[in-house]
Design a protein that fits this description.
There is one protein chain. The chain has 170 residues and is mainly α. Helix content is 84%, strand content 0%.
Length: 170
């Protein structure tokens, strides 16, 4: 080969300095090119793709189907395999049921606790308000009794004075 890929040799450095090195596409690089050079090659590539894509997709589907059928036949081909799978499903169902029941119990307990706390708080508030109301009623009653007594004594005094005045006039 006339062109060397060794860049440390004297020949490569001389050609690099001279700038006369020209690269030609080799046969290997021309066949690995992904871009078609001519419009005919472009049409040919599109036609190939139009055929190969569905074929490849069909093969992938077939492979997936074959592997699924194989796994199912190995699991369910014998009575023991079928029973093993059924027990597996039963265990998984029991686990899910138990998990659900635990969650329901936990939620119910939390709800009942919250309800008890709210009820106690409400009862406490009602009791405090009732005591406050009774205290206010007693205070108002005492004030009314005092004012009633004061009013009664004043009225009796005024009646007594009026009777005196009437008795002195007659």
């Amino acid at each position: 080969m006339a062109t060397s890929t060794n860049k440390s040799g004297p020949r490569a450095s001389a050609t690099r300095k001279a700038g006369t090195k020209t690269t030609k596409p080799t046969a290997a690089s021309a066949t690995t090119s992904t871009q078609p050079a001519t419009p005919v090659e472009q049409v040919q590539q599109l036609a190939e793709r139009a055929v190969l894509v569905p074929v490849g997709a069909g093969l992938i589907v077939r492979d997936n189907l074959v592997s699924t059928v194989r796994s199912l036949t190995t699991k369910y081909s014998s009575r023991e395999g079928m029973e093993r799978e059924l027990k597996r499903y039963e265990r998984r169902g029991a686990t899910a049921r138990n998990r659900f029941e635990r969650q329901v119990r936990k939620t119910r307990t939390r709800f009942e606790r919250d309800l008890r706390q709210r009820r106690k708080s409400l009862e406490r508030t009602v009791k405090q308000n009732r005591r406050r109301f009774e205290r206010e009623v007693r205070t108002v009653r005492k004030d009314l009794e005092k004012q009633s007594e004061t009013l009664t004594t004043r009225v009796e005094k005024l009646v007594g004075e009026a009777q005196e005045l009437l008795g002195s006039v007659s």
